[in-house]
Specification:
Layout: H1 3-19, H2 22-29, H3 33-47, E1 52-54, E2 59-61, H4 63-91, E3 95-101, H5 103-110, H6 114-120, E4 124-130, E5 144-148, E6 157-164, E7 166-170, H7 172-178, E8 192-193, H8 199-202, E9 203-208, E10 211-216, H9 226-234, E11 239-243, H10 248-252, E12 257-259, E13 268-274, H11 282-297
Helix pairs in contact: 1-2, 1-3, 1-4, 2-3
Length: about 300
């Protein structure tokens, strides 16, 4: 007898004992009386003990039946509790939602939204995994990921968010010392703060009147951290080419100045990705909706 069959027969046995009747148990379980009787017989045969004493007028438990009934009751109660718990997870936003986010974006754009999200959903908890590597969401047991750029083909479900504008910026001190570039062609005369020494890292892309423009830049400061490059820009060391959200505060307070706005490329694509759309728990659903709303208005 399979485990599933045994569990089903145990639940039937428990209902028979509680009802003190095969007929009433059959009605409660939406089964035929014959099917109920067969389930009890199958269970007794598997256990090699008699669980019930049957007569035309009375149904009573044997000593073995009394001991077994306690276990059966416990199984049924735990199954009901598990189903109720899963129903709550599905229907009410609660529990832990794990989100994988690139470090800087998570720090500057996602973390500040958490107080409002958790205020709206008091039973929800959030774990932010800040990581610039593209991780396997399923293997790492992540509920949601945020990805930049064009997505590779995968089984993940994707929801697009408004793209991230890109900006070229420099400090007033740098511009005073070296002048203000007016077009991509002027960048050959400037210190450009790039993410590495390879040609790919030093190639910056612009767009003007639907024409794509590539510029191979040069500079004395190279770093694979945009946060470090921003400090270099603030120290008058060169031009910074990054997504705008990373320097929003500095642009607002005047510590950095936006340049060549007519030449900026298209915004960087931004996506929410998650493993499966079926049986989505309520907590994940409201987090996705919340982030979509926040980025649509922000």
């Amino acid at each position: 007898m399979s485990l599933l069959q045994r569990l089903s027969d145990m639940a039937t046995f428990a209902k028979v004992v509680e009802s003190r009747s095969f007929t009433q148990a059959a009605v409660a379980l939406d089964m035929s009386k014959g099917a109920v009787s067969k389930a009890i017989s199958r269970l007794e045969q598997h256990l090699n003990v008699r669980l019930l004493q049957r007569s035309t007028r009375q149904l009573s438990l044997t000593s073995e039946g009394e001991a077994f009934f306690e276990y059966c009751q416990r199984v049924v109660v735990q199954a009901d509790q598990a189903e109720h718990h899963l129903s709550e997870l599905r229907d009410e936003p609660s529990g832990l939602i794990r989100i994988s986010v690139p470090v800087t974006f998570g720090t500057l754009r996602i973390a500040p939204l958490l107080p409002e999200l958790l205020k709206q959903y008091p039973k929800l908890s959030i774990e932010l995994d800040l990581n610039d590597k593209v991780i396997d969401l399923i293997a790492e047991k992540m509920d949601l990921g945020i990805r930049f750029g064009q997505l590779a083909n995968s089984s993940l479900i994707a929801r697009s968010l408004p793209g991230l504008p890109i900006t070229l910026a420099a400090s007033p001190g740098y511009l005073q010392a070296f002048g203000t570039p007016q077009s991509p062609a002027d960048l050959c005369h400037h210190q450009c703060l790039s993410s590495g020494s390879s040609v790919a890292d030093r190639t910056w892309f612009f767009r003007y009147q639907d024409q794509r423009i590539e510029v191979l830049t040069t500079g004395r400061v190279l770093c694979n951290s945009n946060r470090a490059l921003k400090h270099a820009a603030l120290a008058d060391m060169g031009l910074l080419f990054v997504t705008r959200y990373q320097v929003e505060k500095e642009l607002q307070n005047g510590n950095l100045v936006e340049l060549m706005q007519d030449y900026m490329p298209e915004p960087l694509p931004l996506h929410l990705v998650y493993p499966n759309r079926h049986h989505m728990k309520a907590g994940l659903k409201v987090v996705i909706q919340f982030l979509q709303q926040q980025f649509a208005t922000g």
